[in-house]
Design a protein that fits this description.
Chain A is mostly helical and 118 residues long. Chain A is built from six helices and no strands. The chains are: A mainly alpha (118), B mainly alpha (131).
């Protein structure tokens, strides 16, 4: 597979996954850590939508894994932290501290290194 | 509370790494696919199916961990999955992990640690409340 196409699939999978996490963060309210509490949380509409997105992201991920090594593809998942931090600011109005920006820059540098390692 | 959370995060990362290994093993057996209906058919390959199931369980433990809102505590532990997946890829899948890839993984882990340790004041407040 063409490397540009491969990267496009990896980034789509990670992006959908990041959006799913934001939807979850809005829906994940659990009162008690028990089987009943978990089931109640899972029946929340936002959690179900998030899981559906997670499934689509997983299908894209299968496509990625069929075309490249696991040790190459997996580190890209860390880009999700960056996306989640940015979306948290935009959607959930959370702040991004300078230290977090530094962490995001470092993650990006690491992903670029891995990206060049084929 | 902290112990519950630690167990959830470690379970999520451990299951996540196993899921990745199972997915990759399944796709090795199934063969190369392109975008399209093959993606659904491949999901039915036993190892891929098992991998998706484990991925799902890992996701649930992650949601539970996230629901505790202690992001600063959760994220640094998430770095463990990068170490696990890299070692498993090398040991079990016999992938060649070059120096650049290895260094990249270490840099990422450092970054994830920073993102986690950079809790915002709102998050710290939430953490104090939950204690």
């Amino acid at each position: 597979m063409d490397q540009a196409l491969l990267l496009a699939y990896i980034l789509s999978s990670v992006t959908i996954n990041g959006f799913a996490q934001i939807v979850w963060k809005k829906g994940a309210k659990i009162e008690k850590l028990s089987i009943k509490g978990i089931i109640k949380m899972l029946l929340n509409k936002k959690i179900i939508i998030g899981l559906a997105m997670y499934f689509i992201s997983a299908l894209l991920w299968i496509l990625v894994l069929s075309n490249t090594e696991l040790s190459y593809a997996f580190p890209f998942i860390s880009l999700g932290y960056i996306l989640v931090a940015i979306l948290s600011k935009l959607v959930l109005k959370e702040e991004i501290t300078p230290k977090r920006v530094l962490g995001m820059v470092i993650i990006t540098a690491g992903v670029i290194m891995v990206g060049c390692s084929l | 509370m902290k112990k519950d959370l630690l167990i959830l995060v470690l379970t999520s990362n451990f299951l996540g790494a196993i899921a990745q290994l199972s997915l990759k093993t399944g796709m090795k057996i199934y063969g190369q696919i392109n975008f399209g209906p093959d993606m659904i058919l491949a999901a039915l390959q036993p190892y891929v199916f098992l991998g998706l199931l484990t991925y799902f369980l890992s996701a649930i433990s992650w949601i539970l961990a996230l629901s505790k809102a202690e992001v600063s505590y959760v994220y640094p532990f998430a770095s463990i999955s990068y170490v696990m997946v890299t070692i498993l890829s090398w040991l079990i899948l016999n992938e060649n992990i070059g120096l650049l890839r290895l260094l990249g993984v270490f840099v990422i882990i450092t970054g994830v640690y920073f993102v986690g340790k950079s809790a915002t004041s709102k998050e710290i407040k939430q953490e104090k409340k939950s204690k």
